[in-house]
Structure formats: structure tokens, C-alpha cells
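Example record used in the benchmark description.
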Amino acid sequence: MASALETSALVPVSQKAAQDYAAHADNLLKYVDACMKQAPLDALAAKQVEMMLQNHRNHLQFMMSFFRLNNPELLKEIVIWVYRAYQAHGFSPDYFPAVLGRWMEAVSQFLPPESATEILGVYGWMLDNHQRFLTAAKEYRNMEQEAAGAPHPLQALRNDFLQGLIAGSLSRCNACATGYIKGKDELREFYLGVVQPAMIEIGNLWERGELSVAWEHLATAVVTRIMAAQHMRFFGLEKPKGKALISAAANEFHELGARMVADLFDLDGWDVTYIGSNVPVEAAEEMIRNEKPSVVGLSVTMPFNLGKTADLVDRIHSSPELAGVKIIVGGRAFQFSPTLWR
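Model output (C-alpha cells):
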């Protein structure tokens, strides 16, 4: 199991090493891309070159976040997730040690020696545990297939809604929503008991290679239209509880969770400012200063966006003007480590 992957050998990376890694990010990425595009075809999924290059960009952003946060549990869980997802999309197991080796070469070439030594310790740990990561990814999939649990009270509605999403049927999904939602309470239940788990399963289907990115985006578009229509049925009530500002993180294009939270705050009687997806840190900070909310909610789906989220949280905490603002963080990224929110 994943618990067999010991993280005790991981030594926290210094701020200087993390800064050097980020400063040389462009050179690191160019080197790895160039090497891997020339690698033997059996060492990487030949038909997945664009996905491979995107993985390199995501890897770079995630490692910068990891070196900033120094959370070993996060690193372990993310690597297992990458092994699962990319093998499901046709990548050979040989791809992972091959690409880790190229990252190590790049780090050795471009970073100052002391910083390179620190960073190489982390990459070496990943490379040394390659077989364990393969085993953990396979065991996770088996555990997922065996997991059942008691059926949810809205299970039948959830299944119908999910099938509508998979088919890309706005009419079927809308019928599920309008047939169930009679008031604010039902809207909350529909969001949390139907929409959220259905969209998690859509993501799982993509991860397993059973749904394309286009169909995943179609499902998101259907849900977005339904949420907008249903929420407006109950919009415009008095706002006695204060102001809330909700946003997806910088570089985060998965905004459905943030939009759902914004709607739920509104239903609970808050004056909500929802600023959408991929809001740069500086722009989000400026908006918070202008709006002066009591609560700021930040949603992060992709783990490689955690670093920018931490930057914004630090800016809020360090500003005397924003001293009273409460911060809520959430999203799929925080499920990889129970202590990450701290």
C-alpha cells in the first residue's frame, strides 16, 4: 500500500534551493522537453507527446509548490496519482524513471551545486521508490473498485444525473434538477449530494482514460448552466451576515467548486463577490482590499496551483489592513494531505 512508501528520508528543501529551482524553471523545462522528445518510443507513450509535454509543465509548477510547502505526504500522494492517471492514458511504466532522470540531469546542470544537492535528494527519493509507486498505484485502483459503502439517499438521482453528464445531455440533467429542487434546502442537497459526487466521478473517468478532456469539459459546461439557472431562482434575498469573496486560485481553471461555494454562501444570506477562475495573486489581493470582505474562500483543484494560493494567503496575513479577514481554503488539492490547509 501507499503507507509502505516511507517519507522520512525526505529532507526539507531550503528557501534558497527552492528559489534557485524557480529561477531556472525555463531552462529546466526546455532541457527535459528536448530530451524526452528524443527518447526511445517504448520509454514514453509515443501517441501522447502533447500530454507528456503538459505533464512536464505541471510537474515543474507542482515541484515549485512542493518546495515552498515541504509537505512529504502531498508529494507521495501526488506521485501515486500521476502514476495512476498517466498509465491509464497509455504511458509506459518506463516513462517515469526516464523523465525523473532527465529532471535530475537538468537540476545538476543549471542549479548552483549546494541547491542542486538539496533538490536532487527529492528527485532521488522519487526515483528510488519507482517500483513502490507502481505497486501503490495498482493497489489504489483495486481498493477503489472494492469500495462500496451504504447507498446515498440521493443515489438514484445522482446516477441519473451522472449518466446525463456522460451523454452530454443538458435536458436530462436539467430534468433531474428541476424535478428535485423546490427550495433552498433542496438546492443545497442537490449541489452536495448530486452535483459534487457526479463531477468527482467525471474526473475519475478521465483519470482512468474512459472519458476524453472534451467530454469532461462538456459535463462541466452542462453543470455550469444548470447551476446558474437554479441559483437565480433563489437569488436576491437580504444579506445580513456580511461580505464574502470567493475565487478559484491563480492559474486554476477548474472553477465549478468555487462557484458552488459562492452560491451556497449566497443562499446562507451573505453578500457574495465571486471573481471566477485563474485570478492572478496581485489582482485577487487588490480586489480583497477594495471589497473588504469578512471571509475569503479560495478553491484549488490542481496541486500545482498550491504555491500561488499560499502566496495569496501570506499576503492577506501580512497586511494590517486585512487582519480581520477569515480565510477558507478547499478543493480537490487539499484531499491529498489532511494537514495541508495549515
